[in-house]
Amino acid sequence: MHGIKTNILTIGTRPITAVATAVIGIVGTAPAADAAAFPIGARVLITDVRQALTQLGETGTLPAALTAIADQANPTVVLVRVAPDANAGTQDSNTIAGVNLLLGAETALGVRPRILGAPGLDTAAVSAALVVVAKRLRAMVYARAIGATVANAVTYAATFADREIMLIWPNFSGAFVGDAVARAMGLRAQIDEQQGWNKTLSNVVVGGVTGLSQDVSFDFEGGASDAATLNNAKITTLVRFGGGFRFWGNRTCSSEPLFAFESATRTSQILADEIAYGLAWAADKPMTARLVRDVLDTINARLRKLATPGPNQRLIGAKAWYDPALNPPADLAAGKLVLDYDFTPTAPMEGLELNQRITDKYYADLASQLAA
Asked: I want to staple 184 with a disulfide (CB 3.0 to 4.6 A). Which of 3, 142, 162, 300 is the partner?
């Protein structure tokens, strides 16, 4: 070459964009569904839930579940229809096969389900399979705590220890056994869209319900009650309070206290995906101090934005950094880089304690008040 050539260099930070969190992955039956629109054992993307209901028929679990979801929101849904079977073991096998199909949704349909459930089919085996899939998708499972009584539900909940599942007991009144779970999934999507993924499911009015399948005693001021017993056992319950029916409870089944709250689990999941996806541009570039600095600045810019006080605040605080001890020269030369970041999620104000005192001190200025 003889002359001057200009190279356009792409350096500096890149914006990290939000990932879609209000995407439901649901598995169920619908024997009367349009087979062309909803083939058995296939992933189907739904962008209009009410429209989808016109092709699902009226039998099976999916029509009732999608109706319950639509009462809360109109989220994007990845639906898998499975064959119904009178044999419980075969039904579980069919449902679990459908649950596993959710793993390929992002490749096949371009969206990742993050709110998972099989309302009406969520036996212990199916719920366990949902948790396995949720771990890989970084998603949350909503499932029923199986049991006819509070004590039964508590015993059932003790069999789970995963941060990726929230158990719900009892059901809303009605014939469909998965109604409460389906409404929880729809409400979770609604909260994500309207308030944010760091707001828990608890204490938000649920649309389209008129009663509970079983009585649940409840004391808003913290006394002993069925609701308190269930919450202490990491079960989200249902209460009537403040002019409507609400889910009551913030807890996952996690055995790790740091992820006891639904909001902490979802914050961890969403940060992991946002940061990973947001750094795709840096993969395979020459590893220099400038690139490492750009990566750190990119992460910290996103963390600062999420921690900025205001209506969109999602974190209390967070920071990314480079630790020389974790990056020996041999590893750097081999193309391996380790960066750390920490975060403090927003905890739900689950317990508020008020101290009431009686005093006569406000009579002290009574004379001056009379004079005025």
From this structure: 142
